[in-house]
Specification:
The structure is a single chain. The longest helix is centred in the middle third of the chain and has 27 residues. The strands form four sheets. This protein has an eight-stranded mixed beta sheet with strand order 8-10-9-14-15-13-11-12, with helices on both faces. Strands 1-3-2 form a three-stranded mixed beta sheet. It is an alpha+beta fold and 479 residues long. The protein has one domain: Amidase signature (AS) domain (Amidase signature (AS) enzymes, Alpha-Beta Complex). The N terminus is likely disordered.
Length: 479
């Protein structure tokens, strides 16, 4: 039976909620302490967009809040996750001062857990980068090394969780944006199956179903318990993931049966660094020691064809977003305010026709069926989360002279694996099991069949017990 392992000096979210329920501490006291921790580390990390802590504390009553996460402090990523009364800049100068008039459905679900929302976190413009750096808010740093990226696009949330300012924070993931920063920052991050978490009311699906939402956390059980509460079909949703017969938290408390795991080291034409290969092989050896069977395999995809097609969807939807913003403003968006990366995507992919867009969606759906067949041979796929350790801030900078192939090389030679599981709709997670010789985290990536988050969380908890990570604290921390 799995037993939760944690750093006793800093409890996880569920442990904090238990303390609040038992009256050992009030929600106001917890929120006040978290506010101080956030403000202690943010000058170094630059991970906060809107600091809402004082307002949140003032609104907390004296009674104990209700819910599984009563009184637990958290933050919400500022990227297509509307929080009423807060800015929804989406990391862009174009929308930097837009105030959301409503809550996203997932934010409503989050609030129902009794959690205290203390602010919003940084993201790159429109979420199309694996580093959280923007002209609107500057560069978000990694708490393990302030010269290195925190990952993207949920880098602000990841940095604050890793620095122990809050035990968990909300992010989203359209191509790796939960798992990449989880890997860079040495925390746990799971991307759910397509349709598990509601996307409304503003949209039915993000990037043709590739986008999804979940928290990043230190403990596996926090992610499991929160995903239980965030899961479900909102009003008018186009589809939903399967309903779980048992809770994901319950699943995380059971060791998995003997698993057949397929190990992938590389996705051509991109190279995988020796340290990232070593991290994946080390995780494979750990899985074997836990009684699982590991076999080598490859991914059934031409990566360059894949990224060309996926960016048809991203480019078209980015153009659609700008058209919407223009209609709302009553005048065209000033594209000089956009990041060069966004202008490159629009230049190369923003003008595709409807038939090309439809064919691209059909292609990723067919790819999902191909991946499902591979997962009929294995219970789990194991890959490096990233093909390189965390890179230095500024490494991903582009200008308008760069081409679309330059963009693909710059970003997807860093993260070639993660996006595949957005297109296929499968759940996938980054688990912090390995650190580089320079002391930087290197995550290991696991994916399972559609709707099988319970299996991944069961395996993650087993790995957490075998090699606990909660006690590994970065140099920049709020403790």
């Amino acid at each position: 039976m799995n037993t939760f392992v944690n750093d006793a000096s800093h409890p996880d979210g569920l442990a904090i909620a238990e303390l609040v329920r038992k009256g050992h501490v009030t929600a106001k006291e917890v929120a006040s302490q978290a506010r101080d921790r956030i403000r202690k580390v943010n000058p170094q990390l630059n991970a906060i967009v809107d600091d809402l802590a004082d307002q949140a504390i003032a609104n907390l009553g004296n009674g104990a809040p209700q819910g599984d996460f009563c009184g637990v402090p958290t933050l919400i990523k500022d990227l297509f996750l509307p929080l009423q009364g807060a800015r929804m800049s989406n990391g862009s100068l174009v929308t930097k001062e837009v105030i959301s008039p409503f809550d996203a459905e997932v934010v409503t679900c989050l609030k129902a857990t009794g959690i205290s929302i203390l602010g919003t976190t940084t993201s790159p413009e429109f979420g199309t980068s694996y580093t959280t750096e923007s002209r609107a808010f500057g560069r978000t740093a990694n708490p393990w090394s302030l010269d290195h990226v925190a990952g993207g696009s949920s880098g602000g949330s990841a940095a604050m969780v890793a620095a122990r300012a809050v035990p968990l924070a909300l992010g989203n993931d359209g191509g790796g944006s939960i798992r990449v920063p989880a890997s860079c920052c040495g925390i746990f991050g799971l991307k759910p199956s397509r349709g598990r978490v509601p996307m409304g009311p503003a949209i039915g699906e993000g990037w043709a179903g590739m986008g999804c939402t979940n928290v990043l956390s230190i403990s596996v059980r926090d992610s499991a318990a929160m995903l239980d509460r965030l899961s479900g079909m909102d009003l008018g949703a186009p589809y939903a993931a399967p309903h779980d017969e048992v809770s994901l938290l319950s699943a995380s408390k059971r060791d998995p049966s003997k698993l057949r795991i397929g190990l992938v080291r590389v996705l051509p034409p991109f190279d995988t660094s020796s340290e990232c290969v070593a991290a994946a092989e080390d995780a494979a050896a750990l899985c074997q020691a836990l009684g699982h069977v590991v076999e080598d395999t490859t991914l059934p995809v031409d990566a360059m064809e894949y990224y060309d097609i996926v960016f048809n969807i991203i480019g078209a939807q980015t153009r659609s977003l700008l058209n919407f913003l223009s209609r709302m403003a009553g005048h065209p968006v000033d594209e000089a305010l956009l990041e060069p990366r966004t202008r490159i995507i629009l230049r190369e992919k923003g003008g595709i026709d409807g038939a090309t867009y439809a064919a691209s969606v059909d292609w990723i759906h067919a790819f999902g069926r191909t991946m499902a067949r591979l997962l009929s041979q294995f219970d789990v796929l194991l890959t490096p989360t990233l093909a390189k350790p965390p890179q230095r801030l500024g490494s991903f900078d582009l200008d308008d002279s760069n081409s679309f192939p330059d963009l693909i090389e710059r970003f997807h030679s860093f993260s070639p694996f993660t996006s595949l599981f957005n297109a296929s709709g499968q759940p996938a997670m980054s688990v912090p099991l390995y650190w580089s010789e320079h002391g930087l985290p290197i995550g290991t990536h696991f994916a399972a069949g559609f709707g099988r988050e319970g299996l991944l969380l069961s395996l993650a908890s087993q790995l957490e017990v075998a090699r606990p990570w909660a006690g590994r604290i970065p140099p920049v921390n709020a403790l």
